[in-house]
Protein: Auxin efflux carrier component
Amino acid sequence: MIGWEDVYKVVAAMAPLYFALILGYGSVKWWKIFSTQQCDAINKLVCYFTLPLFTFEFTSHIDPFHLNFPFIAADAIGKLIIVLVLAFWTKCTTKGSYCWSITSFSLSTLTNALVIGVPLAKVMYGEMAVDLVVQGSVVQAIVWLTTLLFVLELRRTGLDLVAAGDSSGSVSDEKTVQVGGEGEKDLEGEGMEGEERRSSSKSRRPSLKPLMKKVWVKLAGNPNSYACTIGFAWAFVAKRWDVEMPSIMEGSILIMSKAGTGTAMFNLGIFMALQEKLIACGPTLTIVGMVLKFIAGPAAMAIGSVAMGLHGDVLRVAIIQAAVPQSITSFIYAKEYGLHADVLSTAVIFGAIVSLPVLVAYYAALEFIVH
Structure:
């Protein structure tokens, strides 16, 4: 069972994050150091420099020859379950939304495993659990965060192309048209008015070829889209042929990557300071976000784990790591691409605050349920 000393270790690992967050918040709210334009520049610094180098650095140290493939497959099944549920919600219900499906996927599946999950896993189940959490983080960076980046770029590029093709410019607002978002508050309606809105939206959608071409060009210029892949490729070479990274290269990467988490939390504090309310998205969306994070995500992971035959501590780790608080990276992407950054910021902050008692409750419950 977790003791007070173990709880202190977890809190001690999380405290520096909030120190950086408070500094970012105070720099705008109290000390008025940064302007709005400068805040946007800081977000770009995090998104295009410190974050990709941080991702490359931790990915490059994994051992690709000793991965727990049933664990990784269970994680993939859990995430695909969420994708299928959201796809059904988007296509088959009047409340369904392409944009909210993207955000809901982030809320229910993407975790801050390296910062919070690793120290928590270590005090709960030891080094075995740490190794599993790191493996899950690498797969998240390579597959799921890259996929998130792709759909966000697809959405923004589609909106840009539609806006450029409309002489009045009235469709540049995402409330007017969403790429693939037939279920959107703007396309709802009854009778002929609703049909006209849907028809207008479809007619304004860009053709697939120019859309995909522009998306791939933009992704090629975004280091986040390939930092994790290059890091994993280096890990494969290093472990296969026992090669060490040249010290000059490793030092150049480390000097920026070590700033990754700190600058991300600092940027989150800045975003909070720019909002009218501390809980930017309001209580209702906050509750929805917590349900997705702490209930829907672990439930989907439990189904995937049982399907892959996981048992014992591996099954416990799989479920608990799915309930780890929101990924900071998902907030950075949401802010950069202008999609529900208020919801993601609240999920990161509030999720980290309530995560400790929730995760300890999961730990205690799984000790009795899982054998």
About this structure: The two ends are 16 Å apart (CA to CA).
